[in-house]
Design a protein that fits this description.
Keywords: Glycogen biosynthesis, Glycosyltransferase, Phosphoprotein, Transferase. This protein is α/β, with parallel strands linked by helices. It has 26 helices and 17 strands. Helix 1 packs parallel to helix 12, helix 14 packs across helix 16 and helix 15 runs parallel beside helix 19.
Length: 710
């Protein structure tokens, strides 16, 4: 029945559907300009009477990754569209209290008229600005104020689309209320904007609404079934069914074309949500996904190929001098060193100058995030380091929030005794300095036993004896609830990575997010990433992958896979990703055992690099930040909006494109090999010779000059 309801859309949209290969060509060839070419604070959009609304459940409401997408994109969006842009979502008081500055729209603005008309119907609508870079306009809807019409909204959804929703599914019911409130607002705004345009001799308004994910997709379904003349774009960041299937340990990518999607959604009791997502996908004028791999997934699970791929970016802030981010790395690493001294007290038999910090972080999805193969690869790396580089130590951090009882007492005690030793040494140091100064002032050079008194020796010995411990350093910083069934701890036990004296790989499982108020680390997540040497994210299911992207922007090399959107994007745009500090593990075309061995080899290759080689690799990695900047990637979102507008308003011509320089999307060639653009593939020199101590063998003279090395 659901397919019958969508049949008209499938026929209408055939000419809009491109294959995955076409998407790749489209995103590469037609993105001939940078989004900076359109930064006019909405001047041209205002002259065209063009309005853009972006709708998501996570607007000013921090829940997951989409919040990061919307928030980080806010600056370039407002630079492009100014006051012609408005973000919409649910009003969540606990978030809005700190994220939103409430204010009314100016008088005479059709936005104000539409908001007031909605308020007159009994809805609570909050307006203002988001307190992030760009300060975009916000309209947030109080879902509770529309709950009295829930039965009416559900009835309309059933009558128009034959999608029934269980009464007890609160999340879906909230999405329905929000969707229909937004649809009513947009319908009202279009009427107000038309009246305003006629009264002021302006051309008819052109409106585009961009919806993110299935929770916001209800609004798109309502607009299209009510035949409101508004251009619509729907973006899926990860398909709903895809997440559930991957969580069930299925061979997902090799069976994508074999899944009975209706049956699988029904088994997992998400059929109504799946229907909403699929309806929004087919009813949208333009359908986009965040990566090629998600587009392939959507083609089989949602039965529509994406029209455009819209990769996720970051709001990159470049440093004026190349050495600045290297200095930040050194300062952050010293803070991690402090944690390591406390956690491994009594067993500090390794040199921190020869210690590397690897980490994995994200939602606690043991298989999807690749924690399983990460731990297995670390066991093999441990064996290789024992044999080949016994003086090198790797500390592997696993940051996965899960339920805990409290901090591990042994971890807290370690930091306390190390602090006591530091305070004692500082006191002794001051005493020695004062005695040395007084003695030299009198013309005498003191004997060593005159500088270090017996009392000082006693204090130091007491602190040193306090550092002794019989047990091994713990593998976790907290007492985890039901630790015997915890998948990370179970894998650590199986691989016998117990932080013994002989282990060259040390494990630290930190089961909560990092904040600057954390009593163990005392640093936030961004600073922690800067202090590490390598981020390892061997995900099996990762539609985009913000964690490796954040590493890249901060100049930290990372490991990703060809099943993540980020990995596919980098593989496509860089001819030699490994030389740029992007290690891509093959989890699609080879077996699991081979993937584990490949990851272990990548980590071993990185461990062989000397300090200068790592510095140069970080410089190369940081240069890729331009590739991930919203100023570069935001152009795809613009193309999606233009395409949607042209499908609703055939006479629409993108006026701003007439003033564009139409320069090619090129990235500056690094001073050292290899060059960045894919077009330079044939001239890419050989990669660096890893393991060489001679700097000249790693890079050209220009690179060394840039690093300040003579």
């Amino acid at each position: 029945m659901f397919r019958r309801q969508l049949s008209f859309r499938l026929e209408d949209s055939d000419h809009n559907v491109y294959g995955i290969r076409m998407n790749r060509r489209f995103s590469r060839v037609e993105s001939g300009v940078d989004l900076k070419d359109y930064f006019d604070r909405g001047d041209i959009a205002s002259r065209e009477n063009r309005w853009t609304f972006e709708i998501a459940w996570e607007v000013a409401n921090k829940v997951g990754g989409i919040y990061t997408v919307i928030r980080s994109k806010a600056y370039v969006s407002t630079e492009e569209m100014g006051e012609q842009l408005c973000l919409m979502g649910p009003y969540k008081e606990h978030c809005a209290r700190t994220e939103m500055e409430e204010m009314e729209f100016p008088r005479g603005n059709p936005l104000l008229d539409a908001v007031n008309n909605l308020r007159s119907r009994g809805y609570k609508v909050h307006t203002g600005r988001w307190l992030v870079d760009g300060n975009p306009q916000l309209i947030l809807f109080d879902i509770g104020s529309g709950a009295w019409k829930l039965d009416q909204f559900r009835s309309e959804l059933w009558d128009k689309c034959h999608v029934g929703v269980p009464h007890l599914d609160i999340e879906t019911n909230d999405a329905i209320i929000l969707g229909y409130m937004i649809a009513e607002f947009l319908e009202e705004f279009r009427r107000c904007a038309t009246e305003y345009s006629q009264a002021n001799d302006l051309q008819a308004p052109r409106i585009v609404a961009h919806f993110h994910e299935w929770q916001a997709g209800v609004g798109l379904v309502a607009l299209r079934t009510r035949h409101v003349e508004i251009a619509t774009v729907f973006t899926t960041h990860a398909t709903l069914l895809g997440r559930y299937l991957c969580a069930g340990n299925t061979d997902f990518y090799n069976n994508l074309d074999k899944f009975a999607v209706d049956e699988e959604a029904g088994k997992r009791q998400i059929y109504h949500r799946y229907c909403i997502e699929r309806a929004a996908t087919h009813l949208a004028h333009v359908f986009t996904t965040v990566s090629e791999i998600t587009g392939y997934e959507a083609e089989h699970l949602l039965k529509r190929k994406p029209d455009i791929i819209t990769p996720n970016g970051l709001n990159v802030k470049k440093f004026s001098a190349i050495h600045e981010f290297q200095n930040l790395h050194a300062m952050a690493k010293e803070k991690i060193n402090e944690f390591v001294r406390g956690h491994f007290y009594g067993h500090m038999d390794f040199d921190l100058d020869k210690t590397l910090y690897f980490f994995i972080a994200g939602r606690y999805e043991f298989g999807n995030k690749g924690a399983d193969i990460f731990i297995e690869s670390l066991a093999r790396l441990n064996a290789q380091l024992k044999h080949e580089k016994p003086d090198t130590t790797v500390v592997a951090f696993m940051i996965f929030p899960t339920k805990t009882n409290n901090f591990n007492v042994d971890s807290l005690r370690g930091h306390a005794v190390v602090k006591q030793l530091r305070d004692t040494i500082n006191g002794v140091q001051q005493g020695i300095g004062k005695r040395l100064f007084d003695s030299c002032l009198k013309g005498n050079i003191p004997a060593p036993d005159e500088l270090l008194t017996k009392d000082d020796l006693v204090k130091i010995k007491r602190c040193m004896y306090a550092l002794q411990r019989d047990s091994m350093p713990p593998v976790t910083t907290h007492n985890i609830v039901d630790d015997w069934n915890d998948p990370v701890l179970g894998a650590i036990r199986r691989c016998q990575l117990f932080n013994t004296v002989h282990d060259r790989v040390k494990m630290v499982f930190h089961p909560e997010f990092l904040t600057s108020t954390n009593p163990l680390f005392g640093i936030d997540y961004e600073e922690f990433v800067r202090g590490c040497h390598l981020g390892v994210f061997p995900s099996y299911y990762e539609p985009w992958g913000y964690t490796p992207a954040e590493c890249t922007v901060m100049g930290i090399p990372s490991v990703t896979t060809n099943l993540s959107g980020f990995g596919c994007f980098m593989e496509e745009h860089i001819s030699d990703p490994k030389s740029y500090g992007i290690y891509i593990v093959d989890r699609r075309y080879i077996g699991l055992e081979n993937s584990i061995q490949q990851l272990a080899n990548y980590m071993m290759d990185f461990s062989r690099l000397n300090r200068r080689q790592r510095i140069i690799q970080r410089n190369r990695t940081e240069r890729l930040s331009d590739l991930l900047d919203w100023r570069t990637l935001g152009i795809y979102y613009r193309q999606a909006r233009v395409k949607a507008l042209q499908s609703v308003y055939p006479d629409y011509i993108d006026e701003s494109s007439l003033y564009s320089s139409r320069s090619n999307l090129n990235f500056s060639r690094p001073f050292s090999e290899p060059p960045s653009p894919s077009s330079s593939r044939h001239t890419t020199p050989a990669p660096s010779v890893h393991g060489s101590d001679e700097e000249d063998s790693v890079d050209e003279e220009t690179e060394l000059k840039e690093l300040g090395i003579k």
